Amino acid sequence: MRDVRSWKYALVLGLAALVVGCSSKDTKELPPAELPKFTAEVQLKEEWSRSVGVGQGKTYNMLQPAVDGDTIFAADVEGKIVALDRYTGKVRWSKNLKRPISGAVGAGYGQVLVGTLQGEVISLDSASGEEQWRTRVTSEVLAAPATNGDVVVVQTQDDRLIALEAASGNHRWIYESTPAVLTLRGTSTPIVTNQLAIAGLSSGKVIALDTRRGLPIWEQRVAIPTGRSELERVVDIDGNLLLSGGTLYVSAYQGRVEALDLESGRPLWQREASSYGGVAQGYGSVYVSLASGTVEAIDERSSSALWSNDALARRQLSTPAVFSSYVAVGDKEGYLHLLSQVDGRFVGRIHVDRHGLRARPLVVGDWLYAYGNGGELVALTIR
């Protein structure tokens, strides 16, 4: 059964990219839009770059790096994990787990956490890279584990949420959920606060659980399956959730972008959208990369579109990130684009990795870290 589901994941991934270009059986897939020309207003400076093994691999992994303090952690699909000084790129330690990593990287409270295709969660000491514990869960782990220092929460391919004791890896609780028949390949990374574990499910729902016992506190539907075919009914929440203050932001494929009240799950606003990534937020706006390749800015007060840039159509964009006064987004050819937060115009561009740029750009202060599909990790600043 697992092999069948894995095949379905790959199927939907491939077909999702064609939806915007195929209006009928006779319509051929349209190629990615050509890169638009513009006069650069911002220069991106490469501070350092390092190769992290083979990178993301060929199965659409989303191995997002993580920063904890002045260290950045990154992993490749074959099991290599590196810890680097985030300002210089100097290697602090490197470890080969000899396991196919598919969920990476979670970091914090002295731990580095990854999940594997073999259904394991592995914790390493963030200072030395020494293994602390290794625990088997119910199925593949396709997103980074998350921790609050007391509990580690992981979402598995079969839509279960599993809580492990942060100190030992022992099981604390498990929340059962029925996955959709057909989904995108991947899951969102849970958010863990002191009291709540929050995750997006393949059914189009967001669930908040008590971190101590795993009891549901609230759930909210972000997308409702419609259509006659299973493909048309895919409403997976695949992109990372975003928590800002007391507001939770979430987007769903063939669903909506929504802002929810963290404590109650009550919708604050919503807007129809289809996205397989998450959202970015800043300066009173929410930014989302739509499945079509359009980047859109949404006013948090009115939920209306402030601007829309469709010049990157069919370029399979990453989740956007707010970087200084700009919106940064990667594409399938490995370009990182900077757009103005004011009107969405292009202001800068740099090529990162010829194999593509799938993972969301990671922004920490005045630094941006881009991790290419081929394993190139680049630190950038604005000149």
UniProtKB/TrEMBL annotation:
Part of the Bam complex. Its main location: membrane. SMART domains: PQQ (SM00564). Part of the outer membrane protein assembly complex, which is involved in assembly and insertion of beta-barrel proteins into the outer membrane. This is Outer membrane protein assembly factor BamB. Residues 78-309 form the Pyrrolo-quinoline quinone repeat domain. It is a lipid-anchor. Pfam families: PQQ_2. InterPro entries: BamB (IPR017687), PQQ_b-propeller_rpt (IPR018391), PQQ_rpt_dom (IPR002372), Quinoprotein_ADH-like_sf (IPR011047), WD40/YVTN_repeat-like_dom_sf (IPR015943). Belongs to the BamB family. Keywords: Cell outer membrane, Lipoprotein, Membrane, Palmitate, Signal. It is found in: Cell outer membrane.
